[in-house]
Amino acid sequence: MAFTEEQLVRYSRHIILSEVGGKGQKKIGDAKVLIVGAGGLGAPLALYLAAAGVGTLGIADADVVDLTNLQRQIIHHTADVGQSKVKSATDKVGALNPDVKVIPYQKYINPGNALQIFGEYDVIVDGTDNFPAKFLINDAAFFANKPLVHGGILRFEGQLFTIVPKESACYRCVFPAPPPLGVVPSCQEAGVLGALAGFIGTLQGTEVLKLILGIGSLLTNRILNYSALTTRFREIKIQRNPDCPLCGTKPSIEKLEMQEQPEQPVCHLDTVAAAKGDGTP
Fold first, then answer.
1. How many structural domains compose the chain?
2. pTM, full prediction
3. C-alpha 112: how far from its chain's center?
């Protein structure tokens, strides 16, 4: 791929980085990334990956833009209320960077379509807002052998970690099953600081670019927690669980299945403390 003069200018701040250069920018341009969820996390993800010049962005979401989304989902504007989120996100990406090809999926990822869709991409990013979807995405990424970047937010807390199938701990190694109903409050009950979504989503985007470029130290086998109220980070070391039902030595999950939906939608945060129920990792 030969860069045009305009592209050399557009991506110049990447190209002058010794860890990126022209070859690295070409890798970014050739990459295909799927963002599942065009909400609080998916919004900054899509914008920053588009700005970086990721060649193909898949965006999957079946929802429409709601007025309550605008407090944090910065890819959507007031005029987009009532419009599908994937259409709104596609328009903004196109306006930001015409180099990027967007493939919209105005549908939910489910056991029937996940493997086919995931197979088209190099990296999967989880920006969903409910536990059943998060478990499905983890399992589908494992079966498709695709790296996955997980993120979550709730109130003033955020977390993320990266999963490389068969090499690092997967989501089920840490959370074998969804927490009991009521352990993690819903968005409507607990709320979320809008800017926190941008912060965690941007960190997810950084992990994606590192995966594409093959640089730095990935956030594998460790969960990064961030408290916006105290401006403190906490890193929790994790490891592959030999008894994991998905990637363990004797797996019990051999095909994609949707976990039972909770009665209430849950927000993006599913911390170790919530899963353990005792506040400790």
1. 1
2. 0.91
3. 20
Whether 112 maps to a domain, the answer reads yes
Structure tokens at 247: 């990637």
Strands 32-36 and 222-227: unpaired
- Residue 160 domain-assigned (yes or no): yes
Residue 222: domain span: 15-276
The tens digit of pLDDT for each residue in 53-66 reads 999 999 999 999 99
Scan for tokens 């019990």, then name that residue.
252
- Count of H-run helices and E-run strands, the chain: 11, 8
Q: Give the model confidence (pLDDT) of 89-138 as tens digits.
A: 999 999 999 999 999 999 999 999 999 999 999 999 999 988 889 999 99
Query: Residue 140 corresponds to which tokens in the numbers above?
Result: 């589908």
Separation of alpha carbons 36 and 18, rounded Å? 31
For residue 29, which of 9, 6, 7 has the smallest C-alpha distance? 7
Give a yes or no: residue 34 inside a domain. yes
The Cα–Cα gap between 267 and 185 comes to 7
